[in-house]
Amino acid sequence: MSNRHDLTRLPPDLPVPQDDGACDHLAGRRVPAIALPSTAGRPVDLSTLSGRTVVYCYPRTGRPDVPVPAGWDAIPGARGCTPQSCAFRDRHREFQALGVGVFGLSTQTTEDQREAAERLQLPMELLSDARLAFARALDLPTFEFEGMVLIKRLTLVALDGRITKVFYPVFPPDANAREVLAWLRGGA
Q1: Global confidence as pTM
Q2: If exposure means fewest CB atoms within 10 Å of the residue's CB, which of 13, 55, 73, 129 is most exposed?
Q3: Spatial contact of 154 and 67, defined as CB atoms under 8 Å apart
Q4: What is the distance between the alpha carbons of residues 38 and 111, in angstroms, rounded to a whole number?
C-alpha cells in the first residue's frame, strides 16, 4: 500500500503550513462553556475541567476503505489526522503520569469519530464540534473542503478552563504529542 492510501504514514512531499497568525488571540482566553458529544457517549464541557487539559484539533480522520480525496494532500496541514491521533494514543500514559487529560476534537460526527476511535484503539475521547459552536466561540481557524468546514490542525493546552498554550501550525502532525509533552515537562 502506498503512503498516499496508508493513513498511518505521511507522504514525504506534504506542503508545510505557515503561521498565519490565526491563533494569536487564543492564549489567555477562557475555554467556552459548550457541551460537546464524546465518543464515550457523554457530553464534555471542557470549560469545567480542572487541572491541565490538552485538546488537539484536527480536520478529519480518513477511513482505510476510502481513498484520500483528490487535492487533500495539497492543502498545507490537512493530511495527518490518523498519525497525530496515534501519536497521542502511543503517549497517552505519559500524559496520564503528568495528570493531564487529552481530547481530540474535529467537526466530524460522533459516529465517524467513534469508527476511528475503535479502529485506532484510542484511549482518549474524541469530541464532535459538528455544529462549529466551539470553533466559532474561540474563532478557531477553519477551511472548506468538499462542502465541509474543517478546523485547521492546532493543539490547545488549558489549565482550569483557561488556554495557556497554543501549538499552531502543527507540523508534522505525528510529532505533536511529543512536542506537547516536552513543553509540559519543561515547567509549563
Answers
A1: 0.94
A2: 13
A3: no
A4: 10
Hey, what's the cell of 150?
Answer: 474543517
**Helix (H/G/I), strand (E/B), else coil: 78:** coil
Please tell me the distance from the alpha carbon of residue 151 to that of residue 148, in angstroms, as a whole number: 10
Amino acid type, 129: D
Task: Find out whether 75 and 17 touch, Cβ atoms under 8 Å.
Answer: no
At 107, list the grid cell: 467537526
- The continuous run of DSSP H or E covering 39 comes out as none
User: 89, 56 in Cβ contact below 8 A?
Assistant: no
Alpha carbon separation from 99 to 1, 84, 126, 134, 156 (Å, rounded): 38, 20, 18, 24, 16
Residue 9 burial class via C-beta count within 10 angstroms: exposed 0-12, middle 13-18, buried 19 and up = middle
Q: For residues 127 and 19, give the distance between their C-alpha atoms in angstroms, rounded to a whole number.
A: 25
- Residue 77 CB contacts under 8 Å (≥ 6 apart), including other chains: 17, 59, 152, 153, 169, 170, 171, 173
Residues 39-71: tens digit of each pLDDT: 999 999 999 999 999 999 999 998 888 888 999
Q: Sketch out the chain's domains with CATH numbers.
A: 35-185 (3.40.30.10)
